[in-house]
Write a structure and sequence with these properties.
With 263 residues, the protein is an alpha/beta fold. It has a domain of 158 residues: Uracil-DNA glycosylase-like domain (Uracil-DNA Glycosylase, subunit E). Helix content is 38%, strand content 9%. The protein has a four-stranded parallel beta sheet. Strand 2 and strand 3 form a beta hairpin.
Length: 263
């Protein structure tokens, strides 16, 4: 079956940890079986992420996965789309003199996620999450000897350290294709990924990873039989302002203190 998968797609498996590669290949074969035309048409189309980063989210080894965070799809900008859920490649510094950095404020989902983390840490009130309120926190965050992380790279490292597989419901973005259509095509792939996680947990006699589903496209994974046994935390997508005050997300992420330096 792998002979029917375009070489250009197969080559992108190199960005994944070796523990994932046979599983991802089975996932691609499941896509090809469900729709033989999908991957060949994708291979000759322009899609994001570029530079072989299609499977960049799978750099975390299979055995290290404790959470599967599922967003909607890649950012619709080449520099921003990294292949890792909601990690905007156009962002590096998190803070500025006025609060969050200009790049963070442009990345709406990331901005609201950071504000939710600040609320969960008791540093920000959901009723007053304005720029002025965040500016006072930024002053502390940028001070010499601060315990706060300073970059998005550090935030991603903290998430990885806690075992987050940062995935999207569709692994590609194409401006001329509705995200729901691409998400439907990738569903057999995600089913293979989740089944592998379940089997790995069974072999280790460990707990299943928690599914963290953000937004309505991600929530559609609830319809898959393979997700039945997984614990889950479901919320609106972080591009909604209401996400900042989401108590379920505060309860999940608060104990992790993701905006603090961690060893």
């Amino acid at each position: 079956m792998s002979s029917s998968i375009p070489v250009a797609i197969l080559d992108t498996l190199a960005s994944a940890d070796p523990s994932w590669r046979p599983i991802l290949l089975r996932g691609l074969e499941a896509i090809a079986e469900a729709d033989p035309e999908y991957l060949p048409s994708l291979a000759i189309d322009n899609f994001l992420p570029t530079n072989g980063r299609l499977f960049a989210a799978f750099s975390l080894p299979l055995n290290a996965v404790r959470y599967v965070l599922v967003g909607e799809g890649p950012y619709p900008r080449e520099r921003s789309a990294t292949g890792v859920c909601f990690m905007d490649g156009a962002v590096e510094s998190l803070w500025s003199e006025k609060g969050l950095s200009k790049e963070v404020n442009r990345a709406t989902s990331l901005r609201n996620f950071m504000k939710m983390l600040l609320v969960a840490d008791g540093m920000l009130s959901p009723e007053n999450a304005s720029g002025d309120a965040v500016a006072h926190i930024s002053l502390r965050a940028r001070a010499i000897g601060s315990s706060f992380i300073q970059t998005l790279t550090e935030l991603q490292a903290n998430l990885t350290r806690h075992g987050f597989l940062l995935l999207n419901a569709t692994l590609v973005y194409r401006p001329d294709v509705p995200p729901l259509k691409d998400a439907k095509a990738w569903r057999p792939f995600l089913q293979v990924v989740l089944k592998a996680l379940a089997e790995n947990a069974g072999q280790k006699r460990g707990s299943l990873p928690t599914l963290v589903l953000w937004g309505k496209i991600a929530e559609q994974l609830n319809a898959l039989d393979v997700t039945a046994g997984f614990p889950r935390a479901v919320s609106e997508h972080p591009y909604n302002l209401s996400f900042i005050a989401n108590r379920s997300m505060q309860g999940l992420f608060g104990p992790m203190h993701l905006l603090q330096q961690q060893s």
